[in-house]
From TrEMBL:
Pfam families: Hormone_recep. Residues 1-241 form the NR LBD domain. Gene3D superfamilies: Retinoid X Receptor. This is NR LBD domain-containing protein. It comes from the Eukaryota. The keyword Cell wall biogenesis/degradation does not apply. Keywords: Receptor, Transcription, Transcription regulation.
Length: 254
């Protein structure tokens, strides 16, 4: 994924830039395709065993969670828990600017007013997801395993029985691997119980869903105050990503 992003988002500068909503949305429109390519390259069994419509269903669910979980993990990893990190390496750390700088006309609300409206959501996001990630002290291996677990989610609307069985089997294998990783990490830290570490990892899965709830509420509020033009429906349409047909993903038929 990192190599795909480097090719798509070349860094001609080394200084991070604070972005506004429209810029962030343009980045996600490109990144969603990279994520689909990454997922299909990492898990070729998806295209081998599932219909394109089921692959698309899993990817949409995955990418929504990825857009809140990866920034939370990067915020902790880089020691900047109050920032939202974008796929380009740029950040969002000023609420007022994020919701007003992209507007063609002066906003109806001052920067201070916008900050008062939206800051509680940013605080809620930190409390809901960033702080639990801090407490968990995730390794990169644990982070990637959790991402894989929510890729193979079950109980989704429109999910076929075949897809559910496929995902359940994949999740069982991933849970076993995550348990082994937690045990290995705790063996080198005699004071930590691996069962507790595993449980902390598991508690992040519902925390990620709550992070999405905060994100969706923020989108709805931005539309209500006419500070952004992207509704939750628009966002989900973008997150649908490619059609997952082999020709579109550049996968050659065997």
């Amino acid at each position: 994924m990192l190599q795909l992003r480097k090719r798509t988002f070349p860094r001609r500068r080394r200084v991070q830039k604070t972005l506004h909503h429209a810029e962030a949305l343009n980045i996600f429109r490109k990144d969603v395709k990279l994520a689909a390519e990454w997922i299909n390259g990492t898990f070729p069994e998806l295209s081998q065993y599932l219909e394109p419509s089921q692959q698309k269903l899993l990817f949409r669910n995955f990418y929504m969670k990825w857009t809140v979980f990866e920034p939370a993990y990067l915020a902790v990893l880089l020691g900047k828990p109050n920032t939202y990190h974008l796929p380009t390496g740029d950040v969002v750390d000023e609420v007022g600017i994020y919701y007003t700088r992209h507007l063609g006309t002066p906003p109806s609300y001052s920067l201070d007013e916008v900050s008062r409206i939206f800051s509680p959501y940013w605080t809620d996001f930190r409390n809901t997801l960033v702080d639990p990630v801090i407490d968990s002290k995730l390794s990169i291996h644990e982070f990637l395993l959790l991402c894989s677990i929510f890729l193979f989610d079950v109980g989704l609307d429109g999910q076929s029985e075949e897809c559910i069985q496929f995902c359940q089997k994949s999740r069982e294998e991933l849970f076993r691997e995550l348990n082994a990783v937690c045990k290995q990490l705790c063996d080198s830290k005699s004071s930590e119980n691996y069962c507790i570490r595993f449980a902390q990892n598991m508690l992040l899965l519902p925390a990620i869903q709550r992070g999405i709830d905060v994100f969706e509420e923020e989108l709805q509020l931005g539309g209500l105050y006419k500070l952004i033009s992207t509704s939750t429906d628009d966002w989900y349409a973008m997150v649908n990503g490619p059609s997952f047909e082999r020709s579109q993903l550049g996968i050659e038929s065997s």
